[in-house]
Design a protein that fits this description.
There is one protein chain. By secondary structure, the chain is of the alpha+beta class. 18% of the residues lie in helices and 34% in strands. The protein folds into three domains: 139 residues, 2-Layer Sandwich (Gyrase A, domain 2); 83 residues, Aminomethyltransferase beta-barrel domains (Alpha-Beta Plaits, 2-Layer Sandwich); 71 residues, Elongation Factor Tu (Ef-tu), domain 3, CATH 2.40.30.110. The strands form four sheets. A six-stranded mixed β-sheet has the order 10-11-12-9-3-13, with helices on both faces. Strands 14-17-16-15-18-19 form a six-stranded antiparallel barrel. A five-stranded antiparallel β-sheet has the order 5-6-7-4-8, covered by helices on one side. Helix 2 packs across helix 7.
């Protein structure tokens, strides 16, 4: 398995590890619940260096990204970030991504770790015009700092005016006592809290991690990253979205720019006003539903659980499920340990700061 540059730091701090997309990653240090609560109430940090990072440059970069994503890249202001998706020719979601624009003809894309090689090959296969796609994933590391105190902690160690950054923007980052050839900061996140992602050269990542730890930023693993994103109803590729699921069926219609040509558009038009599925959020009335558990209505299977867990914030079992779009969502049941349990459908997201 692959390891990030922070592996031995995690090990020294007592992390328990798990395999994730071919990486040996920390799943927790103390407990999922304590780390989850730290992010909701104070601040926590995650090693997310397993994610893929591409640089896209060239005179035709904007036109190219408009073609390979379903959203609107043309006209995107400098220093802005945009959540988007790559689709396959059938309209299924190859990956969900964030596109960052630095300047005319200069973009950065963050992709999911399990899709890194696939995405890189697919982008290069579809290159048109003056465009270059470079994979810088092995040269940099990525630390996510999330929680209500993230801005104050990071401002205390930075020369850059982080406090003035708007949500979904990116900036060059100058740190007070760390000199690095590559350092950028984005105000985005995957927890439902205010937070930042720091892209930094791998030679300097341990120094940054130790600096944050000395400021009492709690080390967090993938366990609470999953419970945090579930409470915020943020999708995880391979669960809520995959190449067999189109973005309309999971409620991402508003992201689609129908006025342009993009890969998968023709197939996606078939679902424009008639989704076959719908994504629901639910609370379990007993037990905890897990990924791929079947959902029933009157003893007929109508869907499956995409994500399920215990919510540390609300102290109850929650989940999301993909079900037939034509059914009524009352009186649904989920199969847990070979028995059917009632669930209560609620509005998404469970948590909103």
């Amino acid at each position: 398995m692959k390891r990030t540059s922070l592996y031995y730091i995690h090990k020294k701090n007592g992390a328990k590890f798990t395999e994730f997309s071919g990486w040996e990653m920390p799943v927790q240090y103390t407990s999922v619940i304590s780390e989850h609560i730290a992010v909701r109430k104070f601040v926590g940090m995650f090693d997310t260096s397993h994610m893929g990072t591409f640089i896209v440059t060239g005179f035709d970069a904007e036109k190219f990204l408009d073609y390979v994503t379903l959203g609107n890249i043309s006209g995107m202001p400098d220093k802005k970030a945009r959540y988007s998706m790559f689709l396959n020719e059938n309209g299924g979601v190859k990956d969900d991504i964030i596109v960052y624009k630095f300047d005319v003809g200069y973009y950065m894309i963050v992709v999911n770790s399990g899709n890194l090689s696939k995405d890189f090959d697919w982008l290069n296969k579809n290159i048109c015009g003056n465009v270059k796609v470079e994979d810088i994933s092995h040269d940099i590391c990525l630390i996510a700092v999330q929680g209500p105190e993230a801005v104050n902690i990071l401002q205390s160690i930075s020369k850059t005016n982080i406090s003035s950054m708007k949500y979904f923007t990116i900036s060059e980052l100058q740190l007070n006592n760390i000199n690095t050839y590559f350092c950028r900061i984005a105000r985005t996140g995957y927890t439902g809290e205010d937070g930042f992602e720091i892209f930094i050269s791998k030679e300097n990542v341990i120094e940054l991690w130790d600096t944050l730890a000395n400021l009492s930023v709690k080390m967090c693993g993938l366990g609470c990253r999953d419970t945090l994103r579930l409470e915020a109803c943020m999708p995880l590729h391979g669960h809520e979205i995959n190449e067999e699921i189109n973005p309309i069926d999971v409620g991402f219609q508003k992201m689609i720019n129908w006025d342009k040509n993009f890969i998968g558009k023709n197939k996606l038009l078939c679902f424009k006003d008639k989704p076959s599925k719908k994504l629901i959020a639910f609370e379990c009335l007993s037990g905890i539903a897990r990924n791929m558990s079947s959902v029933f209505l009157d003893n007929t299977k109508v869907g499956y659980v995409t994500s399920g867990s215990f919510s540390p914030t609300f102290k109850k079992a929650i989940g999301m499920a993909l079900v037939n779009s034509k059914i009524t969502i009352n009186n649904l049941e989920v199969e847990i340990y070979n028995s059917k349990r009632r669930i209560k459908v609620v509005n998404r997201p469970f948590y909103k700061r």
